[in-house]
Automatic annotation (TrEMBL):
<feature type="coiled-coil region">
    <location>
        <begin position="29"/>
        <end position="56"/>
    </location>
</feature>
<keyword id="KW-0175">Coiled coil</keyword>
<protein>
    <submittedName>
        <fullName>Uncharacterized protein</fullName>
    </submittedName>
</protein>
<dbReference type="GO" id="GO:0030674">
    <property type="term" value="F:protein-macromolecule adaptor activity"/>
</dbReference>
<dbReference type="InterPro" id="IPR038966">
    <property type="entry name" value="TMA17"/>
</dbReference>
<dbReference type="GO" id="GO:0070682">
    <property type="term" value="P:proteasome regulatory particle assembly"/>
</dbReference>
Length: 142
C-alpha cells in the first residue's frame, strides 16, 4: 500500500524548507518546475484536442482516421475542461512554492541554478533525485 502524502500549506512549506540543505532546495525547485511544465503541456494538448473537436463539428467530414484521439465525445470535453481547471490551480500552487524556494535561496545568497524557461525546454528529462522528506505537491492536490 502506498503512503498518501497530504499537501502542506504554503506557510508550513516555507517553514519546512528553512531546515533543508541547499541541494535539497535546488532539487525541490527543479521538480516543481518540471511538474509545472508537464502540467502546462498537458493543458495545451487538451485545449488542442477540444479545439479540433469544435472545428470538426463546424466542418463535418474533416476527421483524420489515423488520429488516435478520435472521436472526442462531449464527456471527454467535460473531463478535459475540468482537468485544465484543476491543473491551473495546481500550477499556481506550485509556482507559489517555487517563489518561496527562490526567496529562501536569495536569503542564503545562493543563485537559482536554472531559469524556468530552461526547465521548460527540458521538461521530460529524468533528473536524478533523492527523497527530501518535504512534500512538494506535484500531484493534483493543493
Amino acid at each position: 500500500m502506498s503512503e498518501y502524502k497530504q499537501a502542506i500549506s504554503l506557510v508550513d512549506f516555507q517553514l519546512a524548507i528553512k531546515d533543508s540543505s541547499d541541494e535539497q532546495l535546488h532539487s525541490i525547485l527543479q521538480k516543481l518546475q518540471t511538474s509545472i511544465s508537464r502540467l502546462e503541456e498537458s493543458n495545451q494538448l487538451m485545449e488542442k484536442l477540444m479545439n479540433k473537436e469544435q472545428r470538426e463539428k463546424v466542418v463535418s467530414g474533416s476527421e483524420d482516421d489515423e488520429d488516435e484521439f478520435n472521436p472526442i465525445t462531449d464527456e471527454d470535453i467535460k473531463i478535459y475542461t475540468e482537468s485544465i481547471r484543476e491543473n491551473k490551480f495546481v500550477i499556481q500552487n506550485q509556482k507559489d512554492r517555487c517563489k518561496i524556494i527562490e526567496e529562501e535561496l536569495n536569503v542564503r545568497n545562493l543563485p537559482v541554478t536554472k531559469s524556468f524557461n530552461d526547465i521548460k525546454k527540458s521538461a521530460f528529462v529524468d533528473y536524478p533525485s533523492f527523497d527530501t522528506g518535504i512534500p512538494i505537491s506535484t500531484d493534483n492536490d493543493v
